Amino acid sequence: MAKQTVAIIGLGYVGLPLACLCARRNFKVYGFDIDEAIVKATNSGKSHIADASLVKNVKALKGKIIATTDAQKAISNADVVVVCVPTPIDENKLPDLKPLESACRSIAQHLHKGQLIIIESTIYPGTVREIVKPILEKSGLISEKDFYLAHCPERIDPGNKKWVLESIPRVLGGLGGKGTKIAEKFYNSILKSEILVLSSIECAEAVKVVENTFRDVNIAFVNELAKSFDRLGIDVLEVIKGASTKPFGYMPFYPGPGVGGHCISVDPYYLIERAKQKGFEHEFLMLARKINDSMAGHVVLLAESALQKSDKTLQNSNIALLGLAYKANVDDMRESPALHILQLLKSKGASPKIFDPHIMEKSNCASIDAAIKNADCIILATHHKEFVSALTAQKLKSMGVKAVIDARNCLDKSAITAKGIIYKGIGH
C-alpha cells in the first residue's frame, strides 16, 4: 500500500490533514482543489488553516504533497481517490450535494480500472449507491468489476490534541466485498486506530449523521433546560454537575449560544431530508434544530435585559462581541452562532465592536482592550483561551465594563458580580 499513489479531492479541514497523514505514511500524494490560493500555499509548505499541527506538518511535508487544480493530473495517476469535498445545506436547509457531484464528474472523466474511490464527505444513506455510482459509471466502467467504491465518514476534531486523525476509530462500508477489503487495507496502512467494517455502505453513511444528530439533540435538551431554569431560579450548571455524579445512564452536555461548525448544525438536515424522501417526518430532530437555532436570539435578549437595568438599548449602547469562531481556539467560522448573534445585533440597530484573536481579518478592533473599554455590555460568544484568561473581574472593572453576557459560561460569575458588574450566563 505504501508504494501506491493517493489523490485527495478537496484540501479543506478534512482533506489537508488526510493528505499530510498519507504523505507521512510514504504514499505519493496528489491534492486537488479548485482554489488556486490553497494549492499555491500547500505547494509552498504553508497551511491555509490556522492549526498548529497542520502548520507544522504542511511545512515539513513540502514537496511531498503535490497540490494541483488539474483534476486529470491528480486522478489519472492515483490508485486510491479520496473525496473530501464539503457537503453543506442550501438556503432552504436542504442537502447540497453539488460539490460532491462535481467531484464525481471529474473523477469519472479520468477513472481507470482498478481504482478505489472512497467518499469521506458526510452524506445521507443511499448517496453512494444512488448518486455517486451512476455518475462514475458514466465513464463506461462498472463498479465492483472495474473499480471499487467505499464510504468512510470523516472524523476529525480541529484543535483537539488528544484525538488526532490517526488515533480516532473509524467505520467503513463498501458496495462490494472486494472493494471493502481494499479500502480496509488502505485505512489500516495509515491509521493506528480500530476500523469497524459495517455490513452495508448505507449503514456507514448513516453513522456520521447519527453521531452529530445525537449531539444536536442533547445540546438542544440542555439549552431548553437553561431557558427553563432561568425562570425557575436554578443554576443549570450546578444541576448538570449533580447529575454527572451518577456513574451510569447519564452523559453531560452543556448549554451555549447555539451550535456551529460544518457538522452538528448541518448533518441533522441530511437525515431529516432523506427520511422525508422515504415518507417519514423527523419531528424530534426538527425541534432540536429549532431550539439550537433560537439560542442566538436568547443571547441577544439577555443583552437587552442587562442593558435595561441601566435604561439603555442596543442602539445607544457600547456593545462588544468577543469571538467569531464556532468553537474555542480555532479560526473556523462555519455556521458559527457568533455570526447569528452579530446579525441580530445589527438588525436591532447595534454597532458592536468585534474582536477575535484567531480571525483578525473579520475583527474591527485590534485587541481585547480596544473592544471592551467602557463597554455597556460585552457578549462572550466564543471561549478562546485568550478571553478566559484575560477577562478577570478586576480587568472588567478597570476597563469600565457594565455588563457581561457569558454565552459560554466560562467566566467567574461570583467575582464579576462582586465587582458590581451585571452578569448573565446561559442558565447560569
Give a quick set of tags describing it.
N-(1-d-carboxylethyl)-l-norvaline Dehydrogenase, domain 2; Rossmann fold; alpha/beta; five-stranded parallel sheet
Task: Describe it.
With 428 residues, the chain is an alpha/beta fold. The chain has 3 domains: 5-199, Rossmann fold (3-Layer(aba) Sandwich), CATH 3.40.50.720; 208-291, N-(1-d-carboxylethyl)-l-norvaline Dehydrogenase, domain 2; 294-425, Rossmann fold (3-Layer(aba) Sandwich). The strands form 2 sheets. It has an 8-stranded mixed β-sheet, sandwiched between helices. A 5-stranded parallel β-sheet has the order 10-9-11-12-13. The mean pLDDT is 96. It contains 17 helices and 13 strands. Helix 5 runs parallel beside helix 6 (127-137).
| CATH C-level name of the largest domain | Alpha Beta
Question: Which class do the helix and strand fractions yield?
Answer: alpha/beta
Q: What is the CATH superfamily of the largest domain?
A: NAD(P)-binding Rossmann-like Domain
Average residue pLDDT: 96
Q: Measured on Cα atoms, how large is the radius of gyration?
A: 24 Å
Low-confidence stretches: none
Please state roughly what percent of the residues sit in beta strands, choosing from under 5%, 5-15%, 15-25%, 25-35%, 35-45% or over 45%.
5-15%
Number of domains: 3
Instruction: Provide the CATH topology of the largest domain.
Output: Rossmann fold
**Biggest β-sheet: count, sense, barrel?**
8 strands, mixed
Q: Write the H/E string, N to C.
A: EHEHHEHEHEHEEHEHHHHHEHEHEHHEHE
**What is the CATH architecture assignment of the largest domain?**
3-Layer(aba) Sandwich
| N- to C-terminal distance | 53 Å
State the share of residues found in helices, binned by percent. 40-55%
